[in-house]
Amino acid sequence: MTQHMIEAGKPATKLKSEALQVLFERGLVHQCTDLEALDAKLSAGPVTAYAGFDATASSLHVGHLMPLMSMRWLQKLGHKPIMVLGGGTSQVGDPSFRNEARPMLEQRQIAANIAGIRRSVERLIDLSPEGGALIVDNADWLTEFKFLEFLRDFGPHFTVNRMMTFDSVRSRLDNQMPLTVLEFCYMMLQAVDFLELSRRHDCTLQVGGSDQWGNIVNGVELGRKGDGRQLFGLTVPLITTANGAKMGKTAAGAVWLHPEHLSPFAFWQFWRNTADADVPRFLRLFTELPIREVERLSMLEGIERNEAKKILATQVTAIVHGAEAARHALEQGDTLFSESWEEAEPTHRLASLRLATGMGLLDLLTELGFATSNSDARRLVEGGGVRLNGSVIQDPRRTLAIGDLAAGERLSLAVGRRKKALVAFE
């Protein structure tokens, strides 16, 4: 099997398929198991591809947008996406590049997480009969296997020697961290997912993050050894920001796609606060703007770069939360950062009782995600970076009271020039 590592996001040969041309152009390709053969297959007609998401939380986060955007483009270009929700594999836990085992989840929690993830996926992928996409749960087949039957049918196709060569396994062992048999078997389960999907739905392509490369290769090889099928794997790059931080992490934690975990405005504000150096790349990766428009926006500098950031934020928010939510977030942001911020709608709502009992400024900064901890919030306040209702506050012992409310039972809190919240107390 030929394996390709894509250097600098450019294929070594000229591509025939529009799908791969677009994915490369947008920066969505990192590795491919057989680039030339996949290119030929995609150019010959519609291909069924899948991306899988384990139900470890009740929402996906922005790190998942890379495979999701790849699947959106494939669907737009006439191919069929299958979104696999890991009701089965979530019972085991993916060990890929983790220092310890994932906590075991109860069936009820897994079911609740799948319901939350499904709502996000339904926004990003067209599940109408015309769109042809499917959402499936790998518990449908993984829970049907009997242990001895599973070992007999699939065990001969895997060698421990081969599995030990994958970075996801080796990194754990190199750090002298335990790797349980349960976790070790995860990569077998994911490989069986690919084989089952190829049998049930003629699926021939798996798309995943670069940390899934070993698992994806296992599936490709299982298809060849088990059924003589030609399957393909394609990974998207791991995205870091210009300062080297992992994409999608904030002071408050992950940037969630589900509005119950993170409001559409907070999501919009995350993208609006993108560093200047990241704007051109993020416009390519996370929007569907034509490349010429992406290039035009990428050339903007100075104050004009802020307009590019607004467009980035609004475009991504529209994809994840819908056009109306994106428009509302843009209007809310424009008002919130204007001199008439009192007219903006609240970004957060808290109980009035918390003011009556004396809510600390540091606690509020942490709760809003402007600081990672009270000590971090203290440093922001003492450094003069915090404004309450437009006035700089430098006393970290400051508590909030009814008298701090303005503009209809709410207050404005800002950190620096790029982070601002309008908190209503009800």
TrEMBL record:
Pfam families on file: S4 (PF01479), tRNA-synt_1b (PF00579)
Keyword annotations from UniProtKB, A to Z: Aminoacyl-tRNA synthetase, ATP-binding, Cytoplasm, Ligase, Nucleotide-binding, Protein biosynthesis, RNA-binding
Record EC number: 6.1.1.1
InterPro entries for the chain: aa-tRNA-synth_Ic (IPR002305), Rossmann-like_a/b/a_fold (IPR014729), S4_RNA-bd (IPR002942), S4_RNA-bd_sf (IPR036986), Tyr-tRNA-ligase (IPR002307), Tyr-tRNA-ligase_bac-type (IPR024088), Tyr-tRNA-ligase_bac_1 (IPR024107)
One GO cellular component, as annotated: cytosol
Chain location of the short sequence motif 'HIGH' region per the record: 55-64
Subunit and interaction comment: Homodimer.
Role noted for this protein: Catalyzes the attachment of tyrosine to tRNA(Tyr) in a two-step reaction: tyrosine is first activated by ATP to form Tyr-AMP and then transferred to the acceptor end of tRNA(Tyr).
Name of this chain's protein: Tyrosine--tRNA ligase
